[in-house]
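Reminder to self: tokens first, then the designed residues, so the page reads top to bottom the way the pipeline ran.
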């Protein structure tokens, strides 16, 4: 890891990334879990849709968070490449950095599963492990045309879809049945067991489309064309992808846990439109000028994700819990837990603020 000064950046992209990371650290602060236990059925149902994954079929808001992040990384790749070229890095240096970054993402993603168990496990279904593959594929295709990158994304989806539909191994030949599909077989093949919740490590292939399409969006945003033209092109791309996604639901169920064709297309369409909205509000119309709250989380995403995953949120919770219980527990245990969650979120945010204030931006 290295600490670097912050280069000129697309503000809307940092805002988008920061918003996603802010939601993730709110989850690590157990805020959503507490709100689920409010006792209000309407609030519980809303929180379940917003901040829980669909149990199998369906599309919840929380199912979009990983596509958001993987797409954002793709958007950043051409900007990062251009910055390194401007600094005078050679093609070899840039390529070696990309290879090292992909390896470290895989290492960190795998390492998170080895914390706690009494033996080394090999599991690769979290966002970092999967991003190591999608990032590498996207970087290797960076210099190809946008048409090639878009097509490559669709090829990844089609290969995955065909494997699920026509996998010939008995017991794993039910394309869209939990635990009885190609994804379950692949988990057992590489890890020796099926993953909890039936998440599939093989998702890295179809969701490579999200990062590849992010690269295309990044290249379009870097072009020397009017902002209105950039918005129009991204808007059309998002709407077309969304239409394809809804059409695909007639023959493929929406299942995030195995990244079906319909899920990848629908989540990809909504992700592109989310970027369009951020770009229009922040960079074009400048209607949202105070993006500081989210941007400081967005410029250190890997650090805060690892810090929170490795117990940073739990540490803050242990510190604040006795105080919130003493002050509010007698009146309302739920309110005490809610207050604890907000303070933990504030603590995680402050860590990002401290890094930002000291101009420390941790990258790999």
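Designed residues (364 positions):
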């Amino acid at each position: 890891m290295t600490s670097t000064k912050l280069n000129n950046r697309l503000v809307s992209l940092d805002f988008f990334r920061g918003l996603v990371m802010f939601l993730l650290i709110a989850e690590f602060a157990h805020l959503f879990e507490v709100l689920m236990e409010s006792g209000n059925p309407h609030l519980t149902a809303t929180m379940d849709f917003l901040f829980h994954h669909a149990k199998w079929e369906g599309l919840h808001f929380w199912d979009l968070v990983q596509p958001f992040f993987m797409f954002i990384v793709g958007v950043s790749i051409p900007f990062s490449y251009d910055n390194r070229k401007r600094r005078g890095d050679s093609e070899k240096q840039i390529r070696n950095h990309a290879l090292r970054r992909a390896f470290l993402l895989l290492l960190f993603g795998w390492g998170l599963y080895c914390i706690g168990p009494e033996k080394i496990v090999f599991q690769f279904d979290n966002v970092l492990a999967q991003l190591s593959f999608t990032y590498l594929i996207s970087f290797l295709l960076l210099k190809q045309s946008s048409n090639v990158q878009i097509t490559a994304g669709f090829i990844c989806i089609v290969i995955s879809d065909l494997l699920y539909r026509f996998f010939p191994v008995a017991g794993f030949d039910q394309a869209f049945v939990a635990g009885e599909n190609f994804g379950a077989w692949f988990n057992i093949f590489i890890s020796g067991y099926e993953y909890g919740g039936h998440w599939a490590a093989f998702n890295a292939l179809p969701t490579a489309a999200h990062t590849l399409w992010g690269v295309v969006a990044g290249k379009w945003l870097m072009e020397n064309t009017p902002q209105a033209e950039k918005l129009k092109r991204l808007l059309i791309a998002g709407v077309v992808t969304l239409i394809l996604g809804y059409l695909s639901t007639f023959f493929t169920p929406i299942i995030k846990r195995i990244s079906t064709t319909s899920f990848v297309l629908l989540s990809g369409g909504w992700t592109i439109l989310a970027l369009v909205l951020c770009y229009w509000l922040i960079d074009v119309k400048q209607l949202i000028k105070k993006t500081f709250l989210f941007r400081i989380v967005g410029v250190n995403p890997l650090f805060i994700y690892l810090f929170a995953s490795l117990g940073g949120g739990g540490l803050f919770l242990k510190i604040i819990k006795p105080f919130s219980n003493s002050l509010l527990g007698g009146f309302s245990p739920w309110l005490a837990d809610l207050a604890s969650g907000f303070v933990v979120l504030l603590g995680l945010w402050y860590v990002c603020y401290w890094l930002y204030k000291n101009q420390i931006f941790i990258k790999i």
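The first strand starts at residue 2 and ends at 4.
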